[in-house]
Design goal:
It is a single chain. This protein is an all-alpha fold. About 65% of the residues lie in helices and about 0% in strands.
């Protein structure tokens, strides 16, 4: 029954769909059930300077890496052909842009992880999930940078096209997508596995605040238009006259004594 079992099929054929399903369903369920946990839980008040530098470096680097992977993996190959972009040029761009961005993100994540592990006050306020997800991201950045050593050995872009074909086949529900990457170097496989694992853990950690960052502009445009105004008025507003609409209610704040 299990004679033809292949772990590559589990990781690259089934795990992507599990990860995407958990990401979607888990994020919606958390927002509906525990909306007040949908935050980054910043510890800025405890040790601000290291947090600022670490956070800036990490977020700048990780945003470049994230969108670089997103654009690089999901741009159809025919678009590159139509624009006349050589595969080797795209490969070099990935190394030149992604490499420094990965180093910046790694430095930032190291600062954040060091801060969280070595400061007793921050350590006490940190959950195992906070430390675990930060450690996984740090490891993922290290593995990602190590894959550059393999990428530089085949700068013709052939391997890059294989990963593009795999990721695009996954989203197009091609059950045989896993065959595309079955014989790539183990560093690439580990990098993909850790990426999928982080995606599965995403809804259950502080990483969910990333969605708020992307959704905030949309929510602003679609807001209802109502605004709660805090006032120091000590007396209530006069009641509306017959035929007129009632005045808007405001919350009152007791003046400081």
């Amino acid at each position: 029954m299990f004679g033809n079992f292949d772990i590559n099929f589990i990781i690259f054929g089934i795990m992507p769909y599990v990860a995407l399903t958990v990401l979607l369903v888990g994020s919606i369920a958390r927002y509906e059930r525990d909306p007040f946990t949908w935050k980054s839980s910043s510890s800025q008040l405890l040790r601000r300077k290291q947090l600022v530098w670490g956070s800036i470096l990490f977020h700048v680097g990780i945003i470049i890496v994230f969108f670089g992977h997103l654009i690089g993996l999901f741009t159809p190959v025919w678009v590159l052909d139509a624009l006349g972009v050589p595969y080797w040029l795209k490969q070099w761009m990935a190394v030149i842009v992604g490499g420094p961005a990965g180093v910046i993100a790694l430095i930032g994540s190291t600062m954040l992880l060091h801060r969280r592990l070595t400061d007793p006050r921050i350590r006490v306020t940190s959950s195992y999930a906070d430390i675990g997800i930060m450690g996984l991201i740090w490891l993922q950045l290290v593995i990602g940078l190590l894959t550059i050593t393999q990428t530089l050995q085949h700068m013709d872009g052939a391997e890059m096209v294989r990963f593009m074909s795999w990721s695009q086949s996954v989203v197009s529900w091609n059950i045989n997508a896993w065959v595309t990457v079955v014989d790539v170097h183990w560093l690439y496989k580990l990098h993909i596995f850790l990426g999928l694992l982080i995606t599965i853990l995403f809804p259950f950690t502080r990483l969910v605040h990333m969605i708020s960052g992307f959704a905030a502009p949309v929510r602003y445009l679609l807001r209802s238009g109502y605004q709660i105004v805090r006032t120091r008025r000590q007396k209530p507003l006069a009641s509306a006259k017959p035929g007129q609409s009632a005045p808007a209610q405001t919350t009152t704040a007791k003046p400081a004594e």
